[in-house]
Amino acid sequence: MNSPAYRLGDLQLRILQSLWDRPDSSVAEVHAELKPERDLAYTTVATMLRKMETRGLVAHREEGRSFLYRALVAAEEVSRSVGQHLVDRLSSGSLTEAVSHLLTSREVSRDELDQLEKLIKEAKRRSK
Amino acid sequence: MNSPAYRLGDLQLRILQSLWDRPDSSVAEVHAELKPERDLAYTTVATMLRKMETRGLVAHREEGRSFLYRALVAAEEVSRSVGQHLVDRLSSGSLTEAVSHLLTSREVSRDELDQLEKLIKEAKRRSK
DNA sequence: TCAGTAATACTACCATGGTAGTTTTAAGGT
DNA sequence: ACCTTAAAACTACCATGGTAGTATTACTGA
Fold first, then answer.
1. Range(s) for CATH 1.10.10.10 in chain A?
2. Distance of B33 CA from C19 C1′ (whole Å)
3. Angle, alpha carbons A102-A103-A109 (nearest 5°)
4. pLDDT at A3 over 70
5. Residue A74 has pLDDT above 50, yes or no
6. Residue B61 in contact with residue B68, Cβ under 8 Å?
7. What is the DSSP code (8-state) at residue B92?
8. Given an 8 Å threshold on Cβ–Cβ distance, is B123 in contact with A113?
9. Domain B5-71 class?
10. Looking at the partner chain, which of A84, A103, A115 has a beta carbon nearest the beta carbon of B119?
């Protein structure tokens, strides 16, 4: 919000996603959730959550001896911000160009292309 | 290459873009190119270029008393890397989802949608 | 030849993300 | 009442991006 969301680090974003999925998570829960992908120390997660709280990204309430955290920024908002930032970075603002980059730069399956086409048709319908 | 390209900072990416556009640019030229958008000190650009050279992102050759820089990483490669990283961040790897995010998160003009549709058709044709 | 100038080199500083160890606190069971 | 344990708090450290001032060097024109 006040702090630009696109600047989120990888871990921060991952933590937010975890909290979007399960609001009111304890540090232990977030830590457990991230465990398979990142083998972080418990305190790493705790510290990051505290830092994120300072930045206004999350908030906590007490529950017994634990803190339960929740995200203060909406997934939508962050997605938009992060996406917008990429579009700016990649192609100084041209969405078409950005998507073109994405399409040409990796293998895209037939199936994905179909889905994408549907997405666009839908967007068209909505916009009309 | 060896260092993951997606980690490029905004300024670094901007400098690379400038060099892709005009290879063998002096510091002064890069500085001038960026001037309108970012009013940076000359030495800021020079320092960043030196740092980027250390990281293997650019290289220079001497021309009189100036250094002429060129990018060592290809635009394609960086675009792919940056794009891929975003897709991972935004939707743990689903391109469709990522594009969907981009589409729903901002105003997309009719015209852009048309272009996008064309892009996809083209990709389909290519992949077949 | 010498002063000015334009270039690089060097140094420094700050913020932030990421990571984690150590210390304190408090709850809970025996 | 005390020991264990789990939680938060505090502190610390490093890398990197970004930014720029100061020092040095070397060319160039008067």
1. 5-71
2. 38
3. 125
4. no
5. yes
6. yes
7. T
8. yes
9. mainly alpha
10. A103
